[in-house]
Amino acid sequence: MSLLDGFLARALLAGLGVALVAGPLGCFIVWRRMAYFGDATAHASILGVALALALSLPVFVGALVVALAVAGGITVLTTRGLATDTALGVLAHSALAAGLVAVALLGLRVDLEVYLFGDILAVGRTDLAVIWAGALAVLALLAWRWQRLLIAVLNPDLAEASGIDARREQMALTLALAVVVAVAIKVVGALLISAMLIIPAAAARPLSATPERMAALAAALAATSAGGGVWASWTFDTPTGPTIVCAAAALFLCVTAATWRRR
């Protein structure tokens, strides 16, 4: 009997795959204050799910294409003078509403809770392959452009002086975020993806003296949240995606309380 035959083992591996990439990528989102950007991209994935199901395409493909399109639309709107928070608010809620309407108009038989809150216990072998392929691709991208991304995010003026194209690095981050959203939608759902990106990174921040340490610690905290969330969900019979996020929030509260106590 293979390890992958057990649904709990597959759920744990899926959670770990998402966690290991969400931690480091979430650090860039925290540093650049892109939390709402993550929300907008994640909400847009519901429209991608609807289109993919209607066209008989893999859900990953639909979610990725629409997430990239919305991310590109945000970039265009902000460069044309529209306030960033306004552009994010308009596209985030519009894309989510359009996705829900599309599901109804196309007459699709879809359990929306699966895509809104995730269904990690239903992850199959193909889903695992997609999740880990996407996670490894994003990790490779971050490792390849780590220094350029750091400079562009933390000090845009220095990036310009060093000849680094900050807009190109922004597009690399956008691509990475879209891929993570597309692979994570089955694990924690569109409404909770940004939580897994932000909470572990926020918890790791006060414990880290360097960006590299923060990224590694965020990945470890996210992985701990995934494992603890799957265990707690099985033990207490709770929804797995939200339980994983609750586990991450509990770690964040523990770190915050310890930091305040030390101060």
Describe the protein's architecture and organization:
The protein has 263 residues and is mainly alpha-helical. The protein has one domain: Orthogonal Bundle (ABC transporter involved in vitamin B12 uptake, BtuC). 80% of the residues lie in helices and 0% in strands. It is built from 12 helices and no strands. Helix 2 packs parallel to helix 4 and helix 10 packs across helix 11. The radius of gyration is 18 Å and the shape is globular. The model has no long low-confidence stretch (mean pLDDT 87).
Write the layout of secondary structure elements.
Layout: H1 7-32, H2 35-54, H3 59-79, H4 84-105, H5 112-117, H6 125-144, H7 146-154, H8 156-161, H9 166-184, H10 193-204, H11 211-236, H12 240-262
Helix pairs in contact: 1-6, 1-9, 1-10, 1-11, 2-3, 2-4, 2-9, 2-10, 3-4, 3-9, 6-9, 7-9, 10-11, 10-12, 11-12
Task: Provide tags for this entry.
80% helix, mainly alpha, 0% strand, ABC transporter involved in vitamin B12 uptake, BtuC, globular, 263 residues
Summed up, the helix count is: 12
Number of strands: 0
The CATH homologous superfamily name equals: ABC transporter involved in vitamin B12 uptake, BtuC
- CATH class descriptor: Mainly Alpha
Query: How much strand?
Result: under 5%
Q: What is the CATH architecture annotation? A: Orthogonal Bundle
Largest sheet: none
In short:
This protein is mostly helical. The protein is built from 12 helices and no strands.
